[in-house]
Amino acid sequence: MFNWEDLRHFLAVARTGTLSGAARDLKVDHATVSRRLVALEDDLQVRLVERMPRACRLTAIGQTISELAQSIEENAFAIDRAIRANQSPLSGKVTLSAPPVLVASFLAKYLADFRQRHPGIQLSVSGQAQQVSLSRREADLAIRLVRPKESTNVVRRLGTMPFALYASGDYANLERPSAWEFIAYDAQFDDMPQQQWLRRIAGERPIACEISDINGHHAAARAKAGVAGLPCFLGDADPSLQRLTYDGDPFARDIWLVVHRDLKRASPIRAVMDFLIETVESDPAFRSKGR
Q1: Rounded to whole angstroms, how far apart are CA atoms 229 and 249?
Q2: pLDDT at position 158
């Protein structure tokens, strides 16, 4: 009989297409993934994966087993969620995935309040730009800036996050909009809404620099590198920055709270959800206008 952990590592290889990608997903080293894969192939007495220099390709039987194993994995996660949903004490660990800017510049300052209110719950917050899978228990809860479409999730709109243009009060071209130079994301983020908004405003004016995260944009604007498009809760709170008037449409992103439907009534997770709803919706910077 095969080992479930070996099968889980094989599924990660099948999903990512590489040993290194599977290692990152599972938070183990490359050698562990390779060892688990070999062990599963030895137990089953079949070759599941063709190892190539830059990728792993499933064999025909590997593809068949991958499809069957996905059902096993889904059931294993369903069992885990059922156990979590049956928790009644306000204790245990709850994992939350959220955009890095909200973690570092907003949620972090409320963690002490949450701990005081719920001392039995350990809240583990991960600042992640990429979306995580709640079905695979990569997190218990998520805050996202794009409305999730997974049918297994329950979604609530918390509010909106408006953006504006900001520059240092000492920026050399502060009073000359025609000479503004902009701080943008690099090309891999060209499909991101705030990147498209900023580039529409910039038009033919130059991009001074490209930085891959919003906290870097904030730091660069403070350092007088150019004009940045920042969330208003971040830019307005910084006395060294000045909000700029510009020609163009206003821009904002909706903030969504997401939980797997199997976990929405688990007491520890419900406590975190209620706290997030109260915290975000009570802040004027994010106040939602309707649902």
Answers
A1: 13
A2: 92
Cα–Cα distance, 147 to 155 (Å, whole number): 8
Domain co-membership, 152 together with 227: no
- Compute the distance between CA of residue 13 and CA of residue 170 in angstroms, rounded to an integer: 51
Inside any domain, residue 110: yes
E-assigned strands of the chain?
49-51, 56-58, 92-98, 121-127, 141-144, 153-168, 182-184, 207-210, 227-231, 241-244, 251-260
Going by pLDDT thresholds of 50, 70 and 90, the confidence category of residue 235 is very high
Q: Are strands 56-58 and 49-51 parallel, antiparallel or unpaired?
A: antiparallel
CA 107, chain centre distance (Å): 14
Closest to 134 in 3D by CA, of 150, 120, 123, 112 = 150
Mark whether 42 and 151 lie in a shared domain: no
Last residue of a domain, one of 34, 62, 85: 85
pTM: 0.70
Q: Establish if 291 belongs to a structural domain.
A: no
User: Which tokens is 38 given?
Assistant: 């070999």
User: Residue 211: which CATH number?
Assistant: 3.40.190.10
User: Does residue 272 contact residue 141 with C-beta atoms inside 8 Å?
Assistant: yes
Amino acid in position 239: P
Full DSSP string of 248-288 = S--EEEEEEEEEETTTTT-HHHHHHHHHHHHHHHTSGGG--
Q: Which contacts of 194-202 are long-range, i.e. CB under 8 A and separated by 24 or more positions?
A: 194/163, 194/229, 194/251, 194/253, 197/163, 197/229, 197/248, 197/249, 197/251, 198/229, 200/248, 201/165, 201/229, 201/246, 201/247, 201/248
Residue 79 lies in a domain: yes
For strands 153-168 and 121-127, give the pairing.
unpaired
Q: Which amino acid is at 22?
A: A
> What would the two tokens of residue 159 be?
């509010």
Mean pLDDT lowest for which of 8-22, 148-162, 277-291? 277-291
